[in-house]
Design goal:
Rossmann fold; alpha/beta; single chain; rod-shaped; 3 domains; 14 helices
Length: 399
Amino acid sequence: MNKSVKIYLIFLVVVITGIIALDSSTPKPLNWSPTYSINDKIPFGLFVFDKEINALLQPDTLMAINVTPYEYFDNLYDYDTLINTYHTSGTFVAVNDYANLDDESVKELLYFSSHGNTVFLSMKTLPQILLDSLKLDYRSDFEISNNTSLWFANENLGSEKYNLVEGLGSNYFSKIDTLNTTILGYQGTDKAFANFIKVPYKQGIFYLHLQPAAFTNFHLLKNNHSEYAEKVLSYLPKGNIYWYTKDLTDGHISQNPLRFIFSQPALKAAWYLFLLGMLVFIVFNAKRKQRIVPIIAPLENTTIEFTKTIGNLYFQEGNHHNIIDKKIIYLLDKIRREYLLDTTTLDDKFVQKLQQKTGKNREDLQQLFAKINQHRKGHYESVENDLVEINTLIEKIFS
């Protein structure tokens, strides 16, 4: 490892160590996200409420439901025409920042309540199908200020106003069925807005509350705010409690693009292994990286140019006889080396053997060696014409 790579690695280690030390010494900012998770101890989690629900409601039996109300209560319903009722009874309790109930579950809760049971919902928003069924509506133009308070309509619960501001919603009931609905609580400063009502439904009752922040860790542990939560829950009858915890166990949904990978142990391990492998690759690649190799032009083959030059020299001097001799010498040498034939006598027997080994045209071979024998004996009319003819036959046969 060269010196520069060592310096970079040392610098990187120092920077990472400094960041870790700085991060560990810096106070963690408080998370004010409204997760409403029973596992969260942050201000707007439900950890305290989940731990104290037994003390607050004192139920005969407390059952945590982590499936939809439809899935849970439909299995407890006896469809026998002679019975046609639920095998259980009690109060369904749900606290959340928003309405996390599907339409089938709302219909199931309406049916559950119609058989003499109670449903308590504390949410900033309520399912539209429920509002339509109970002839209700709410608005969201309530202005929250530092002087906003919550209080009860029932004087038996006291006239104290609770200054709950943090995490409050701006919704209030703007339309109710005055013949059947009872207002139990208000919110406001100078003017009162209904936020807690009781709605009879056939043989059962719905308690609807629009300020779930009252049940979060922050308000249950702040001053006397827990009294407000106790008084709200005091309306619920004794008996079995069905505590709806679906969607309350994992907190708020992470916005991290890798949230699914981190939610799966195998994918999470593979991701960290990939990052580690990339780091190792970068380190070793930096160590073994080769400098750019300069392009070296290959040496030019001057043999052909040299041959052309010599050939032109012979041709210009007019020494055709010498050129023919050299071509004959080169040809016979090639025949001896490649075909292992004796070239002393260039007769018909020699031509026959050469034709058998090369597969060339017999007439062309006979014509070529006849010309060669004629040249050797000095029987030629024009040396220049003989050179052209012999060269043409050699190229035709052996090229």
